[in-house]
Structures are given as structure tokens and as C-alpha cells.
Design brief:
The chain is mostly helical. The chain has helices spanning 7-25, 32-39, 43-49, 53-73, 84-91, 99-115, 122-145, 155-175, 182-195. It has a single domain, classed as Tetracycline Repressor, domain 2, CATH 1.10.357.10. It starts with 6 loop residues before the first helix and ends with a helix.
Length: 198
């Protein structure tokens, strides 16, 4: 009886192997041949799912995005009042505060660099940026809705600032985790959110 292959699971296996290669060896090494070697599949089997490196990278990045969204979506709201700590924890879903999120951020940064030289990835990069920006907008709007936020806050400016702070901390941590530790990132985020509140 022929073995039944779950094609979506196989694509995820290939994407996760792509992440591994990117983190350990750099994005330029994430070739179809190298990914095939890492997964134990043939080059032909990998090409069956992804015709090009760009297609493989695109799916790998979409998987990162989907996993972040899934974590955010499955967060359990507290039974009592929503606290500032709960809001900060939501923002931490996109900060590299554990091994899983650090891998995601390293892959994201490598992907972002690749976008500069691969026009086929621009559309996905823009979509992911906009999704992230909308997420930060919801954070600031939630602070306002709960009447935590100072009355004079400029919504658009604060969304831009929160996005820049999170991106900056993530990049600095990936590049120099001894200087900007996970604890310092969380402290900085909490400090910033508290500065927006009454």
C-alpha cells in the first residue's frame, strides 16, 4: 500500500528546515539543494513543493507570520480587568524573548535583507509589515479604550513609535544579545507602555 503523504505537513517540514539553515548558515545557503539535504528529501521532492528559492522563502516567512498570529489569537483573556501587563505580554509575541521567537526573528531579519535584492518578495514583505503595524495600532487603541492612555496621545505617531521600538529592540537583541538581554527588552517595553499611560 503506498504511503500517504500529508503535503501541507511536508511543506512545513521543508520550511522549518529552511529556518534551521538560515539561522545556522545564513540565507544565501538556504538553497533548494541544501534544504533537500537537511530534510533528507531529494532535490526533486523539494522542487515538487517549491519551484524556486524565492517561493521557498516566501512560504517559510508566511509560516513565521502564521505562527505569530496563531499565538496572539489563542491568548486567553483574563477573567477580570485587562491589565497593562497582559497588553505587554501580547507585544512580546513578536519579540525574541525565547528560543522559538528568537529563531523567528533571525529568519525575519534574514528575509528582510533578502527583500532588498529579490523583487519577488516585496509584496509579502509589505503585507507582513502592514499586518504588524495594524497589530501595534490595536495595542495603542486598546490602551485608549481601557482609558489607560494619556488623553493627548497621537494615535498614528504612537503606533509608529511602538513599531520602531519593537523592531529596534528585536534587531539589537539578535545582533548583540549580551548587551540587550531578553530581560532588558521586556523592561524597556514595559517602561515605554507605562510612559503612555496616565
Amino acid at each position: 500500500m503506498p504511503k500517504i503523504v500529508d503535503h501541507y505537513k511536508r511543506k512545513i517540514q521543508i520550511a522549518e528546515a529552511t529556518w534551521k539553515v538560515i539561522v545556522e548558515e545564513g540565507i544565501e545557503q538556504a538553497t533548494v539543494r541544501k534544504i533537500a539535504e537537511t530534510t533528507g528529501l531529494s532535490v526533486g521532492a523539494v522542487r515538487h513543493y517549491f519551484a524556486s528559492q524565492s517561493e521557498l522563502l516566501r512560504f517559510s516567512m508566511e509560516l513565521v507570520s502564521d505562527r505569530v498570529k496563531q499565538r496572539v489569537k489563542t491568548r486567553k483573556f483574563p477573567k477580570g480587568p485587562v491589565s497593562l501587563e497582559f497588553i505587554a505580554d501580547g507585544v512580546c509575541e513578536v519579540l525574541p524573548i525565547d528560543d522559538e521567537r528568537k529563531i523567528e526573528m533571525e529568519v525575519w531579519l534574514a528575509f528582510s535583507a533578502k527583500v532588498l535584492v529579490d523583487n519577488t518578495l516585496h509584496e509579502l514583505s509589505n503585507k507582513m509589515y502592514n499586518d504588524m503595524h495594524q497589530g501595534f495600532k490595536k495595542v495603542i487603541e486598546t490602551l485608549q479604550l481601557l482609558q489607560f492612555a494619556k488623553d493627548e496621545l497621537d494615535l498614528n505617531m504612537e503606533v509608529n513609535r511602538l513599531h520602531a521600538i519593537v523592531d529596534g529592540m528585536a534587531m539589537h537583541h539578535v545582533l548583540n544579545s549580551k548587551q540587550l538581554t531578553q530581560e532588558k527588552m521586556i523592561q524597556t517595553l514595559n517602561y515605554h507602555l507605562q510612559s503612555l499611560c496616565k
